[in-house]
Predict the 3D structure of the following.
Amino acid sequence: MEVPRVAVSVDLVILTVRESHLSALVWRRHAGPHRGLWALPGGFIRLEEDLPATAARVLSERAGLPDAPVHLEQLRTYGYPDRDPRQRVVSVAYLGLAPDLPAPDQPQMSWQPVGGLTELAFDHHHILQDGVERARAKLEYTSLGAAFCRDEFTVAELRRVYEIVWDTRLDPRNFHRKVTGAQRFLVETGSMSSSGGRPAQLYRRGDADLLHPPMLRPRTRSAGAVAPEIPDGPAAVVADASLLVGANRTPVA
Amino acid sequence: MEVPRVAVSVDLVILTVRESHLSALVWRRHAGPHRGLWALPGGFIRLEEDLPATAARVLSERAGLPDAPVHLEQLRTYGYPDRDPRQRVVSVAYLGLAPDLPAPDQPQMSWQPVGGLTELAFDHHHILQDGVERARAKLEYTSLGAAFCRDEFTVAELRRVYEIVWDTRLDPRNFHRKVTGAQRFLVETGSMSSSGGRPAQLYRRGDADLLHPPMLRPRTRSAGAVAPEIPDGPAAVVADASLLVGANRTPVA
DNA sequence: GCAAAAGTGTTTCCTTTACACCCATGT
DNA sequence: ACATGGGTGTAAAGGAAACACTTTTGC
């Protein structure tokens, strides 16, 4: 039996918090399909290369962040046949969380607030949305918020990360108690930061991954996220929305 | 530049709760590499086929569950170069949650308790572990536990699903209050089920996806602690027989 | 002194937990 | 009657939310 072979790429959703906006690393296409639109950095896997290795290479060579402390994790895989009009490409997306970095080495790369990225090449808007939602969800029950901060940071800086990513306000006092009380989330450095008011204690990331109990984001807004229509197969319910996201229940035949 | 093309497959981790065990659908390899070992059902994508469509097709044709109400969602993608010694295969794994179904159409397929599946072909053990952990996590903050139940079920049946998947004991009274109190998680059917004691209200799945606030699994037990024994369900043979009758109905044309 | 931001204390509310107790059926 | 499992009531413990208040800097 003939086994179809397709191109496999890795696309990156690199998020950071800068200038009060959650922003993603994108580049402007100057050729090919979707010319003139923003696109996520990506690249094809090599034959002897693992997927995480491809992601690291794309981050370094294509995105222009060779030595940046970016937390990378697999997001999900997109394989709709016509997502690239030139050829079939199955793309494994990785999510990266980065602190507010200096400009990338690649000059065509730029940070753009995710709110303004409404039209992207291919299905990159969908991928970006999934990445943003994953990031929002992970702040709830992991210590990954600190991945958006520099090596040393204050509780207030961490809180602003949460506020910007979740687009909500958090009580500074309760937030402080929560994150400093969580086991192994933050480690005091001993030094202080001064900026306007009383100097604040500086912290580094602890070695905890999970935040228990979780810090649930306010869910006052009713479900606005509309799940994309999925052409379902024989009888199975194929819920293709990613972890934690919106309505994905379809009645079974 | 030459773009490498590789085979892309979809592998399924289909989980169910039967006979007091969390079990996965596997088949015994009779040829090729890892001959004699259990393997997950899988298949290669077709050129014009979406990934969810491939998953549904593999579930139907290869796993032998054509009309089963299986909740399918993408799990993650595995692409280590040597994971298949014959050729490079990038595999997109899907997780499926199924009620206690009649035997699959494919006779070589069988349900095996996940605890006994220590040695699997290729990297399928790793995939299975990821699937089990995803299922465990999703019971905490989604209403997916009901995907392990038949169309109509009692609160006690749902509780046994949680107990078996999490390998822990839950207070029946508090569990009852929690799940019946959650918005749109369960919908009363009006009918009752009788089995030994006072008849229980029957429920169907509601349209809620998220369980808020979540039901966090007990995290107090240390890793080596002896798991509390979970007694077998009531008259498992009878319950399975009635399930068989209900589930064997011919699909409506 | 005053503004601004950091951090603590305290009260209220809500959820979870633990468990006593009653309910409805089969034998 | 009694065993069995279904379901409610209730009080205690713990965390979250709201907010008064103190601390420590810059100007």
Q: What stands out?
A: Chain A touches chain B through 50 residues (CB under 8 Å). Residues 221-234, 241-253 of chain A have pLDDT under 50 and may be disordered.
